[in-house]
Amino acid sequence: MYFGSNIKFMRKRLNRTQDDVAQTLEIKRSTLSGYENGIAQPGMDTLIRFSNYFNIAIDTLIKINLQKLPESQLRQIERGFDVYLKGTHLRILATTIGKDNEENIELVSEKAKAGYTSGFADPEYISILPTFRLPFLSKQKKYRTFQISGDSMLPIPHRSWVTGVFVQDWLTVRDKDACIVLTVEDGIVFKVVENRIKSENKLILHSLNPLYEPFDLMVKEIREIWQFVHYISPTIPENPTAENYHLVETIKQLKQDVRAIQTHLNF
Questions:
Q1: Domain spanning 3-68: which CATH class is it, in words?
Q2: Looking at per-residue confidence, does 78 or 82 come out higher?
Q3: Rounded Cα–Cα distance for residues 85 and 236 (Å)
């Protein structure tokens, strides 16, 4: 349980004294001190008072070590976004902090992708990733940059560096948003999202390249979502020509014909 350390941490974060909090909650200062030091345990009525006072869910106050959360997540909680209040699971994000106590942007290269799939929640793994800063991005949000591969998101070129902002509440992802999604089976994928989480408990992922068919991704297969912010590439995107579009349509038609043949042969 983290209740004692959490209320002490939040009290100091709000620049409140023990007398201030005790008076507001109508308890003795010595009782509050006992809670903070783990000597005394609060009853349910008292837990509700603390939850209302800090605007943090009881589950969060008890189960989550708030001191270990990155600043971006603490700010979300302070703004009233506490996922336990919505009946979902808090997604703990491992991150790195610079000497100025500001969050870095970690770089996940093509070579680092395999390790990231298993180490994304491990602070030790995240700490060894290269980092950088982009001064034009908000300090109130958490960003990470991933190197993409392949041609499924053309005209964004192969080996581009794509930066995304961390999405805590997946229900806020809008249709047609481009996102970097960490999946259980396929690792890191960069796609345009169709959000069916609320109705069907899944995302439908689309490629910008029409040669690739969309596919479903169930919520249980998702580990992280980062909403697209920008990309960096040394390659200038190619300008599609009418001939290219004709070729794409021809290939799509051929694929449909093959499926029709396969379906016919199965009967």
A1: mainly alpha
A2: 78
A3: 46
